[in-house]
TrEMBL record:
Source superkingdom: Bacteria
Record-given protein name: AcrR family transcriptional regulator
Gene3D superfamilies, per the entry: Tetracycline Repressor, domain 2
Record InterPro entries: Homeodomain-like_sf, HTH-type_TetR-like_transc_reg, HTH_TetR, Rv0078-like_C
PANTHER family (alphabetical): HTH-TYPE TRANSCRIPTIONAL REGULATOR BETI, HTH-TYPE TRANSCRIPTIONAL REGULATOR RUTR
Keyword entries, A-Z: DNA-binding, Transcription, Transcription regulation
UniProt key word Heme: no
Native organism: Sphingobium xenophagum
Pfam families documented for this protein: TetR_C_41, TetR_N
Record flagged with keyword DNA-binding: yes
Domain HTH tetR-type intervals: 13-73
Stored PROSITE patterns: HTH_TETR_2 (PS50977)
DNA-binding region: 36-55
């Protein structure tokens, strides 16, 4: 690659990364709808033209932010599950749910995510980043005899749905009249008892 082109590519990537970083902080603090694009431009230190070049719509920028937060969360969790398997997955669920409200990005993932992306796309992206993690844990559980042999992907999808519902319950605990600790106890109890009917 010619040197000039390499420099331009690096500059382009840096500009895009600055926009995503700035938007992530502002979306987390203020929410998608309450964040003007000019605030993002100023925080990123770029021009409005740069924003429009990389992201034609504010929703496109939000999706880039959403995907970045999803990748980071899963990458960290995958490392733990690779070492600890099914037990590490359950421990990760427990810690995640109990500390969910302290996450800077919870508004992006669970409040604005479904509203901005639409439920179907939000669910697709959530599954895209979380499904492999669930499959790793289930495969380990089956291998160790903790889970009866059964279709891995189907069970992984169901576990993903349970964790997402528990997350939404904790985020809306006051309105639902539930204690987050009780949600975690119920979730872990349910997942710990997974056995199913053996397929052979």
């Amino acid at each position: 690659m010619p040197k000039g082109r390499g420099i331009r590519a690096a500059q382009a990537e840096a500009t895009r990364a600055a926009l995503v970083h700035a938007a992530r902080r502002l979306f987390a603090e203020n929410g998608f709808h309450a964040t003007p694009t000019m605030d993002i431009v100023r925080k990123a230190g770029v021009t409005r033209g740069a924003l429009q070049h990389y992201f034609a719509r504010k929703e496109d920028l939000f999706q880039a932010v959403f995907e970045q937060t999803g990748r980071e969360l899963v990458e960290e969790s995958v490392r733990r599950v690779e070492i600890g398997g099914w037990d590490a997955l359950l421990d990760g669920f427990r810690n995640y749910i109990l500390t969910l409200k302290s996450f800077d990005d919870y508004r992006i993932s669970f409040v604005d995510g479904p509203a901005v992306l639409g439920w179907a796309e939000w669910r697709r992206l959530q599954a895209n980043y979380g499904l492999r993690l669930m499959e790793m844990g289930v495969e380990d559980g089956i291998a160790k005899g903790r889970i009866a042999k059964q279709p891995v992907r189907a069970l992984a999808y169901l576990i993903l749905s349970v964790v997402e519902e528990a997350s939404l319950m904790v985020l809306n605990a006051d309105d639902l009249g539930v204690d987050p600790e009780d949600v975690v106890i119920a979730m872990i109890s349910m997942l710990s008892s997974i056995g199913g009917v053996p397929t052979d």
